[in-house]
Design goal:
The complex is a heterodimer of chains A (about 220) and B (about 240). By secondary structure, chain A is mainly α. Chain A has eight helices and no strands. Chain B starts with a strand and ends with a helix. Classes of the chains: A mainly alpha (about 220), B alpha/beta (about 240).
Chain lengths: ~220, ~240
């Protein structure tokens, strides 16, 4: 039987953690882009668009991420598309993140005083111009902290993709455990690596919240 | 032809009918004060004139065109009639100068240097050109309101709607804002003001509209309205009973 040193274990886990980081980034950025679109639809005065966005949010927030992963992995395969695990994982995480980011940002947009809408409207601006030049720049300030805070959820969400066979940190942990029979050590290290990824994010969220919520608006 | 015609306007919020049929015309260059108790519908009427509220019955037209609800029509209307608010509503993320420049550049597509020149001119007109680079939270209430006036003027409107523009100000700051408004009136700007400043209304306005329970209760030149109120409601409002 091959002996695994502590360094062997850690090295394998760290190599796999790169995929966790990459998947987190892709999901967060992709989710942000889709989420922005959904948010615009959600605050639109067009009832159909707003309704579609609300339905989207209800569905993706109201079902477990694991089911969404299964559906994108096995569901697309049933439709005759061969979906590699990384694609199914990325797709599901992007759509899932988008539903939460859209709601977070909608809250930020709606927190801007009604007078800002009225003043910009009375100067002749159209809805998109109001959004781009008056509302979003102010909403952005209050959105930063909760958005960074949500990124922690994305990082932890990537752990579920191990179940459809995507080899990231958790999946690597399982593989290493099977080879070493040291589950406590291996999963302990896995947990520490997740913590090392998430803790700076939640700390910076708290820091940004304090900094951006200070009295100055510029 | 009147600049603004208000014809049989009714407005309901749920079961509460706040405007019960308003008719009057405003000529170009007139300075109108709308007075009345809170809840009499005066702010709502003002907000209907530039389409911030929709009307349920009747019609309002500005410079011969009906106030419609489509976004394109509303934008065209709002270029003719500016509005100043009780809470100033400056954009807090922009400097005073940028506040005045923004809509020129976004709506009119004016180039930045031309918009800046206009902004300096308008801020100078309200006596605040030295505050061009100050953010709204660095300005007093009176200064913020004067920037808001400059911002509206930069769009070169035919008329301005003023919704209790001194009501949120400390007493010592009221006069600097009213001085600006008085100057505008002197230059022939059409002004429709909802106000509680009775002395100002008497000195500057060409006509006073007294609203009571969603109707125009009395209307006339300030001398008549203030010196000889015809109805007990106006007498009571003016503290004469």
């Amino acid at each position: 039987m091959i002996e695994f040193t502590f360094w062997d274990i850690l090295r394998n886990l760290l190599l796999a953690a790169r995929w966790t980081i990459l998947l987190s980034l892709v999901s967060f950025v992709g989710g942000g882009l889709v989420g922005l679109l959904i948010m615009f639809m959600r605050v639109s005065r067009n009832r159909v668009l707003a309704g579609v966005a609300r339905l989207y949010i209800e569905i993706f927030q109201g079902t477990p991420l694991l089911m969404q992963l299964f559906l994108s992995f096995f569901g697309l395969a049933l439709l005759g598309m061969t979906v590699p695990a990384w694609l199914a994982a990325g797709l599901a995480l992007i759509l899932w993140s988008a539903s939460f980011l859209a709601e977070i940002w909608r809250g930020c947009v709606e927190a801007i005083a009604k007078g800002q809408w009225e003043a910009s409207a009375s100067l002749g601006m159209g809805r998109l111009q109001q959004m781009a030049y008056v509302i979003l720049p102010q909403a952005l300030r209050i959105a930063v902290a909760p958005t960074v805070g949500f990124s922690v959820q994305v990082v932890k969400g990537t752990a579920l993709t191990s179940i459809i066979g995507f080899v990231e940190l958790t999946k690597a942990g399982t593989a290493v455990t099977n080879a070493t029979f040291q589950p406590f050590l291996v999963y302990g290290l896995v947990a520490i690596i997740y913590f090392a990824l998430c803790w700076p994010l939640s700390k910076s969220s708290q820091f940004l919240e304090r900094k951006l919520n200070a009295a100055h608006h510029h | 032809m009147p600049l603004i015609t208000i014809d049989g306007v009714k407005k309901r919020f749920g079961d509460n009918e706040v405007l019960k049929g308003i008719d009057f015309d405003i000529e170009r260059g007139e300075v109108i004060a709308i007075i009345g108790k809170s809840g009499s519908g005066k702010s709502t009427l003002l907000r209907c004139i530039n389409g911030l509220e929709t009307i349920d019955e009747g019609a309002i037209s500005v410079a011969g065109e009906h106030v419609l609800t489509s976004e394109a029509a509303l934008r065209a209307l709002r270029l003719k009639i500016g509005m100043i608010f009780q809470q100033f509503n400056l954009f807090p993320h922009l400097t005073a100068g940028r506040n005045v420049m923004l809509s020129q550049m976004v709506v009119r597509k004016t180039k930045a240097d031309a918009a800046e020149a206009m902004a300096r001119k308008m801020l100078d007109r309200v006596g605040l050109v030295h505050k061009f680079d100050a953010y709204p939270d660095e300005l007093s209430g009176g200064q913020q309101q004067r920037v808001a006036i400059a911002r509206a003027l930069a769009m070169e409107p035919i008329g301005l709607l003023c919704d209790e523009i001194t009501s949120a100000l400390d007493p010592e700051l009221v006069s600097e804002v009213l001085a600006v408004v008085k100057e505008l009136a002197g230059e022939g700007m059409t002004l429709v003001m909802v106000t509680h400043e009775m002395r100002f209304a008497r000195d500057v306005c060409s006509r006073v509209v007294f609203m009571h329970q969603g109707r125009v209760h009395e209307i006339g030149p300030p001398e008549t309205v203030f010196a000889n109120p015809a109805t007990p409601e106006l007498k009571q409002f003016l503290g004469m009973l």
